[in-house]
Amino acid sequence: MNRDIMTPRRRDILRIGAAGALTACWPGWAAAVSAGVPVAPVSTGGTDIELRIAHQMLRIGGRASHAIGINGTVPGPLIRLREGQDVRLTVVNDLPDEDTSIHWHGLLLPFQMDGVPGISFPGIRAGSRFTYEFPIRQSGTYWYHSHSGLQEQMGHYGPIVIDPAGADPIAHDREHVIVLSDHSPIHPHTIFQRLKQQGGYFNYQKQTLAGQLSGRDQTAAERRAWGKMRMDPTDISDVTGSTYTYLVNGRGPADGWTALFRPGERVRLRFINASAMTIFNVRIPGLRMSVVATDGLPVRPVTVDEFQIANAETYDVIVTPGDDRAYGLVAEAIDRSGMAFATLAPRAGLRAAAPPLRRRPVVTMKDMGMDMSAMDPDMVDMSSMHMGMRDSRNAPALPLGPGVQTISPMPADRTAEPGQGLADVGGKVLVYTDLVAADRNPDVRAPSRKLEIHLTGNMERYMWAFDGKKLNEVKDPIPFTAGERVRITLINDTMMNHPIHLHGHFFELVTGHGDYAPRKHTVNVQPGGMVTFDLTANAVGDWAFHCHMLYHMHAGMMRVVSVRPAAAA
Amino acid sequence: MKALACIAALIAVAPAHAQTTPGMDMSGHQHHQPAPTGDTSAHSTASSEKVSTDLSPPGTARPAPPPPADHAADAVWGAAAMAPARERMHHEHGGMRLHQILFNLAEVQVRRGREGYRWDGEGWWGGDINRLVVKSEGEARFGRRVEAAEVQFLYSRAIGPYYDLQAGVRHDLGAGVRRTYASIGVEGLAPYWFETEGTLFVSDEGDVLARAEAWYDQRITQRLVLQPRVELNLAAQDVPEQRIGKGLSTAELGLRLRYEIRHEFAPYLGISWDRKVGRTADYARRDGDGRGGAAAVFGVRGWF
In this complex, is the C-beta atom of B1 within 8 Å of any C-beta atom belonging to chain A? Predict the structure, then answer.
């Protein structure tokens, strides 16, 4: 067949004895044409891995811009580990004048190794180094990124793949790591300042008079209603393709990153959304995808045509391209202002054609937390309902400060719905309720208490918070007793998506699958929607809990979660 | 095929482990039938009744523990090392201070062959809630002394999702009598996207003045914006030294079409019509001054 292709086969991967392994300079997995994840990765010395953080230039589509890279690359090197091993990761901060850090996203580890400055450890000063040391207790697809300032936006992220201690339950012939991200030539602090200075600064898909005259988008009556509410129904992404180039493994759509396969092979694609601000809709026209894992953990395979991946989520999918031709891998930004694009090809030199961008969606009343369809006129006592946009009776405990623009009057559980803008794209779209854990949940006790958290915001002031309070305004953490099981409901009072991440834990989504609930470390709460999960707070320590929209977090949408032994509580 | 078999086997094995834990309500659990193909896209549990397969918390929920007094990382890295990092972490997530300087009007006005200029802008420094605001507006003819100009220094506090309460001092800088005022007002976004501003001024002589201002940005295309604008000045009494009459004293209407090369830099052209009215117009007539009129304007709306 194609002798020029390196063929990493399943059996080769199993042969790798070395536990800790790290690929060299420009890693093979992210080379312009990649045969797949390296068969025998270059080891940096057993379980010792060094990661060097430094400024560098990044070339995307022929244009150079400033970035922060790891060991000279963006994304950083693939860290390949094996379940059961110990690992020592030494991070060298070569930045001239700022602290850095690495958070190992999704890894279960001692809190002091979690890498969040101010919560887990003091951070890594300029010119100094820090060694993380912890055992690897899990397997799957994960990633790592800076938790200092806004460095993540500048390229400070990379993938982690952990092979299971035993046989991999997800059989495949070849695998590729697909790191999706967004890159801007504008400094992230400037991006944040612009968002604060002018609402909708990066949105060049607003409704216009010209659009109205040609009958696009909302009707005149709808525009008046939304104008009265001071809500922009085209506000899907805060930062858009007007400044972002969307990347696959550090390469823009014009750079043509190519993943090789042999027709008929089962190819495992490990998707990681390492974006600062972008949710992607992923599809491979002509290929169905079997979703086999999310956030690192196996799920019962579910075949889809498209799936939405929120910031910090990971999805493993199996595709079996049968034809000897190029397939396009499309990761369209949720607001359709651009796409990350790559090619799956049987040999180098083939290039798939990128499909045109689809029309951007418009926010609906349901996204505003007004789910009229959920109302059963026979069951609901209308007089008890408070349909105002900001009625404190819908969340009595919430402080009604300037940071709370709206409170969803009727938030809906939207976990059975496709993500924003995907209801009418045709084909099977993955929804959260499709996900069923492959393995039985380790803790199947009923939760002993409930906790409700409102995700609040003000788009005009660009303020974001949990329960109306920014992190800088809050002293106390959200307390848990070690071992307790708590049912947590996240209510999205805003019309933006919020991918919420809890450090150091997996939680079980309450989506009707009992003790096979899908376990995740990051869950996207749709606009005006809510998500319920059960959490076993079993990792003693202090942990970060935040929205993974980087600028939402920077604006204050974050809390500290504390887990303490019962005796101490 | 090997893979499918492997996954199917895994799923098949799983229910064997699903033993009932004491105290668990297993009554609703009936979903452990492995799909023979290993594909759950049409899995029955996905669409069946949700709550029935998930255990609900008991009716009498346990209370949350009190928040701990310690910080876990202090025990590992030392309180001295953690304290500054913690403070910085708190500040970095919501506590940042920013600024903006915006000139909504910065233009040349051509009025019956006489050319003048006009500006109206403001700058702010601070966080989400508390800010220092400096505002300035004024106008003049080229080659002459500045006719009317003022600057305000204000403390601004967010009092709701859309409005800021602003209080401070205003000082007049133009020709004629120079007064200083105490100033209090509100500024913010009204329903239907109107930018609005209303301010009350009390001068060091005890005179009370007021101003209302509003504009609307009508987006014609993504970069072409038409801005109608109105500014009204009022007085609670005659102020003869400043030639201001009681009631509505001046009105200014504008219509400006700008092109946003960037949001921060938008050249525009338009028309502005201003008029002294009522008793203020009487003063002007007596002084032999004009009462105002229309002007062609061109300028740049800009901010940084």
Answer: no
Contacts of B272 (CB under 8 A, 6+ apart): B109, B118, B252, B253, B254, B255, B256, B294, B295, B297
**CB–CB of A554 and B192 under 8 A?**
no
Distance (Å, rounded) from C-alpha B189 to C-alpha A308? 34
> Alpha carbon A91 to chain centroid distance?
23
Contact (CB<8Å) B24/A210: no
More confident residue, A411 or A356: A356
Q: State pLDDT tens for residues A248-265.
A: 999 999 998 999 999 999
Give B41's pLDDT tier (boundaries 50, 70, 90).
very low
* Residue A228 DSSP label: H
Q: How far apart are CA A14 and CA A175, in angstroms?
A: 13
Facing A302 at nearest CB: one of B40, B47, B159: B40
A174: closest CA of chain B, how far (Å) = 13
pLDDT exceeds cutoff 80 at B40: no
Asked whether the predicted pLDDT for residue A20 surpasses 80, the reply is no
Whether residue B178 lies within 8 A of chain A, CB to CB, comes out as no
pLDDT given for residue A366 in this prediction? 84
What span, in angstroms and rounded, lies between the C-alpha atoms of A155 and A95? 13
Q: What is the CA radius of gyration of chain A?
A: 23
Q: How far apart are CA B209 and CA B225, in angstroms?
A: 32
pTM higher than 0.80 for the full model?
yes
A434 and B46 within 8 Å at the Cβ level: the answer is: yes
As a whole-number percent, the residues of chain B with pLDDT over 70 amount to: 81
**Minimum CA–CA partner of B3 in chain A:** A171
**φ and ψ at residue A124, rounded to 5 degrees:** -115, 110
Core vs surface per residue A20-58: b (16+ CB within 10 A) or e: bbbbeeebbbbeebbbbbbbebebbeebebbbbbbebeb
In Å, how far is A44's CA from the nearest CA of chain B? 28
Count CB neighbours of B23 within 10 A: 9
Instruction: Tell me if chain A has a CB within 8 Å of the CB of B28.
Output: yes
Q: Cβ–Cβ of B18/A569 closer than 8 Å?
A: no
Residue B92 phi, psi (nearest 5): -70, -20
Q: Do B94 and A555 touch (CB under 8 A)?
A: yes
pLDDT at B123: 98
Best of A240, A300, A458, A530 to disrupt the B interface (most B CBs within 10 Å) is A300
CA B143 to chain centre: 37
* Residues 242-281, chain B, touching A (beta carbon < 8 A): 263
- CB proximity list for B255: less than 8 A, separation 6 or greater: B226, B227, B228, B229, B270, B271, B272
ipTM over 0.95: no
The single residue listed with the structure tokens 């007089």 is A383
Taking only the tens place, the pLDDT of each residue in B196-255 is: 999 999 999 999 999 999 999 999 999 999 999 999 999 999 999 999 999 999 999 999
Where is A298: in which H helix or E strand?
A: strand A297-304
Q: Which residue of A has its CA nearest to B12?
A: A438
